[in-house]
Every structure is written in C-alpha cells, then in structure tokens.
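Key result, reporting period 2: structure in, sequence out.
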C-alpha cells in the first residue's frame, strides 16, 4: 500500500497552486487552498464559504485530508506493483480529474496490463475541460507522464 511521497505532495502543491481566499474556479465551483472545492470528500470537515480566508498551513492540512480518498482509489484500483513515482503521478492525475475518470481510464487499464509506456502516453488525452483543449492541463499531463516514466528501467 503506497502513500504519496513528499515529492508527490510538492508536485501537487505546485500544480494546484495555493489560493488563501475562496474563489470560483473556471467551472464556477467554489474553491480554496490547494484545489479544495465544495465537491471534495473532506467538505464536511473543511467547509468553504464565500469570503473565507485560510493560511497556507491550513491549506496543506486540507490538501492532505483531500488526498486520503484519492490515495485509497489509486491503491485499490491498481493491481500491479508500481514505483513510487508512478504512484505519485497517478495520485496527481486522479486528484485533478476525479476518481470516476481515473477508474474508467485507459491509464489505469494499461497500468494494470503492465504497459507503462502506453499508460503514460494515454495521460496526454486528458487535457480537456468542458470539451475544450486546455494548454495548462496538457502541460500538467506532460509532467505527470514524465514523473510516471522517470523511475522505470531504460530499455
């Protein structure tokens, strides 16, 4: 059973970015901290309201709470031995896209088949929001792909 590494947390924090004040994201969802939204599993423990302000320390505490169910999904869905870097990349991917998307993705299917190169390449397909290609999401997928492949033996 894996847990996200300090490097994985740092990557996620960089990608999510920290916002101390509650705001509406591009999809119109009330969000705060490191991507903590009203749809987060820990919303009852860490509710959000308009005008809310949190510290970075509070944001990290909330992020760790939000990551627990994401880690559980990755741990239960992946049936093969994977490296820590692969795990961290999959947690970032799942945290950003949601458990349902991950569980039905080619990324998971190919990982479970041991076809790691194809799984990493499949990550790049998940660069759209609301049917629109988003360059920032593509860049994030490229970085997750690189992380996923970084600890594999070179052929």
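The corresponding designed sequence is given below.
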């Amino acid at each position: 059973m894996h847990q996200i590494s300090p490097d994985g947390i740092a990557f996620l924090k960089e990608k999510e970015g920290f916002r101390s004040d509650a705001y509406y994201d591009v999809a119109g969802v009330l969000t705060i901290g490191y991507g903590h939204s009203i749809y987060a599993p820990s919303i009852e423990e860490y509710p959000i309201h308009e005008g809310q302000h949190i510290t970075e320390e509070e944001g990290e505490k909330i992020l760790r709470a939000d990551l627990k169910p994401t880690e559980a999904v990755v741990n239960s869905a992946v049936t093969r031995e994977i490296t820590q870097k692969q795990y961290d990349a999959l947690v970032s991917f799942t945290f950003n896209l949601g458990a349902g998307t991950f569980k039905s993705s080619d990324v998971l299917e190919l990982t479970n088949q041991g076809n790691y190169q194809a799984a990493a390449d499949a990550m790049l397909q998940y660069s759209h929001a609301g049917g629109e290609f988003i360059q920032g999401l593509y860049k994030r997928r490229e970085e997750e792909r690189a992380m996923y492949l970084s600890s594999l033996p070179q052929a």
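Helices lie at 6-16, 56-77, 84-97, 99-103, 106-112, 116-123, 135-150. DSSP finds seven helices and five strands in the chain. This case is discussed further under Risks and Mitigation.
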